[in-house]
Amino acid sequence: EVQLVQSGAEVKKPGESLKISCKGSGYSFTSYWIGWVRQMPGKGLEWMGIIYPGDSDTRYSPSFQGQVTISADKSISTAYLQWSSLKASDTAMYYCARHGEMATIRSAFDIWGQGTMVTVSS
Amino acid sequence: DIQMTQSPSSLSASVGDRVTITCRASQGISNYLAWFQQKPGKAPKSLIYAASSLQSGVPSKFSGSGSGTYFTLTISSLQPEDFATYYCQQYNSYPWTFGQGTKVEIK
Question: Which residues of chain A have pLDDT under 70?
C-alpha cells in the first residue's frame, strides 16, 4: 500500500526550531516529487513547496521561501519540513503529499499524509 | 501568482441532488487542474487530476470538466458521505495555488 506517514503533533515556543517528517512507503520514494501544504486553523490550503527526493531538487512558493527549509533523506524514504525560528503565526496543520506521476513535476497530488499539527505558543 | 476563485463559497443541498462547483483561474492553465475533498479533521483526499481524470478508487459520481480558465466539479447524486469542503488547485505555474474552498452542507 502506498502511504505517507507524518510525525506527531508538536508544541513549541516562539523562537524555537523544529523539523517535522513525512515517511513514504509502498513505492519508489526517490522517483516521485513530494510537496508540503499548510492549513492554518479554520482556513484553506496553501502550497508551500516541493522536493524531488532523487536529487533533492526543491522549489518554494515565494510566500514561504526563506521561512522554511524542505529536505529529504532518500536512504530512509523521508521528507522534512523545518523551521529555524518559529513564530506564533506558524501555528497550523501541515500536510505532505505525493505527486501522482513518476518523475513528473507538473502532476497533481495523489496521496496525502495524515497531517502534523504544529502549535507555537509562549 | 495565478488566482483560483471558486464559486459558490458554500452551498446547501439535499441527498440525491446534483451539485456543481465552479473554479476560475486568473489566467490560462490548460488542463493542469486538480480537485480535492476535505472532511473536518481529516487530510484532503485527491479526487480528480488533469481537470477530468478520476483518481484511482474515486467513484464515478464525481466528474470534472474544463480547460483554460474555467473548470467545474460535479457530484451527480449527493450522498451523506459527500458533505465536505472541496478545493481546486492549479499546477501549471509556480507557485501552485488553491481555490478558497467550497463547503457543501446538508439542507
Answer: none
